Amino acid sequence: MILASCGSNNTNQNTQAQMDSISKANAALQDEINKKKNDSTINAIATAKADSIEKAAKHEGGEHKGTGHKTGGKEPAPVATQTVAPQPTAQDNKFNNRQPGSQQSGTKLTPEQQQAQDDKFNRRGK
Predict the structure, then answer these.
(1) What sign does the dihedral 18-21-27-28 (CA atoms) show?
(2) How many angstroms separate the CA atoms of 104 and 124, rounded?
(3) What torsion, rounded to 10 degrees, do the Cα atoms 92, 97, 98, 100 define?
(4) CA atoms within 13 A on the CB side of 120
(5) What distance lies between CA 124 and its chain's CA centroid?
(6) Burial (CB count within 10 angstroms: exposed 0-12, middle 13-18, buried 19+), residue 40
(7) What are 22-72's pLDDT values in tens digits?
(8) d(CA 106, CA 90)
């Protein structure tokens, strides 16, 4: 028994040309959407840059808003800064005050330290 399929019997079947046309239209639509998104992003970046340039120009010209003073275009004297060492955290203290243990190479534990570690290990297992 031989079955034959004819395109004329199936009216829902698209031809290759129709499928290509639909695909090209979808690609063109997607390209247009992406172009608009890119243009919008470029415009937003350009606006932000222009605003920052304008703000910098006003700052250099002595036109601060809300500061109540004008520098007259002169640079203010540099402010001396001191470097302050950060305060040690609890984790730093824990690390700096650690007791020698079996994890450090070349150190031996006293029998009391070994017993304390063994007891700690045994408690964890329960």
Answers:
(1) negative
(2) 22
(3) 140
(4) 6
(5) 39
(6) exposed
(7) 999 999 999 999 999 999 899 999 999 999 998 888 877 665 555 555 555
(8) 27
